[in-house]
Amino acid sequence: MLVLSRKKDEKIVIGDSITLMVIEIRGDKVRLGIDAPRDVSVHREEIYEAIKREATDSSEKPAVD
């Protein structure tokens, strides 16, 4: 894992099309702005895990005739 330090209003660039910007730092929380193409999905980890779980659950259900 790459670990980078950034201050408010500083950015991180991923590839040619994704930019992360530190919007605000308040206590133990950091607000990030993410600029990515529409075809790139961006989710918080817990939402991503729920989506994966739902997809797995629906694919394991037996087919109904």
Automatic annotation (TrEMBL):
<dbReference type="InterPro" id="IPR036107">
    <property type="entry name" value="CsrA_sf"/>
</dbReference>
<dbReference type="GO" id="GO:1902208">
    <property type="term" value="P:regulation of bacterial-type flagellum assembly"/>
</dbReference>
<comment type="similarity">
    <text>Belongs to the CsrA/RsmA family.</text>
</comment>
<keyword id="KW-0963">Cytoplasm</keyword>
<keyword id="KW-1005">Bacterial flagellum biogenesis</keyword>
<dbReference type="Pfam" id="PF02599">
    <property type="entry name" value="CsrA"/>
</dbReference>
<keyword id="KW-0810">Translation regulation</keyword>
<dbReference type="InterPro" id="IPR003751">
    <property type="entry name" value="CsrA"/>
</dbReference>
<dbReference type="GO" id="GO:0006402">
    <property type="term" value="P:mRNA catabolic process"/>
</dbReference>
<dbReference type="GO" id="GO:0048027">
    <property type="term" value="F:mRNA 5'-UTR binding"/>
</dbReference>
<comment type="function">
    <text>A translational regulator that binds mRNA to regulate translation initiation and/or mRNA stability. Usually binds in the 5'-UTR at or near the Shine-Dalgarno sequence preventing ribosome-binding, thus repressing translation. Its main target seems to be the major flagellin gene, while its function is anatagonized by FliW.</text>
</comment>
<dbReference type="GO" id="GO:0006109">
    <property type="term" value="P:regulation of carbohydrate metabolic process"/>
</dbReference>
<keyword id="KW-0678">Repressor</keyword>
<dbReference type="GO" id="GO:0045947">
    <property type="term" value="P:negative regulation of translational initiation"/>
</dbReference>
<dbReference type="GO" id="GO:0044781">
    <property type="term" value="P:bacterial-type flagellum organization"/>
</dbReference>
<protein>
    <recommendedName>
        <fullName>Translational regulator CsrA</fullName>
    </recommendedName>
</protein>
<keyword id="KW-0694">RNA-binding</keyword>
<comment type="subunit">
    <text>Homodimer; the beta-strands of each monomer intercalate to form a hydrophobic core, while the alpha-helices form wings that extend away from the core.</text>
</comment>
<dbReference type="GO" id="GO:0005829">
    <property type="term" value="C:cytosol"/>
</dbReference>
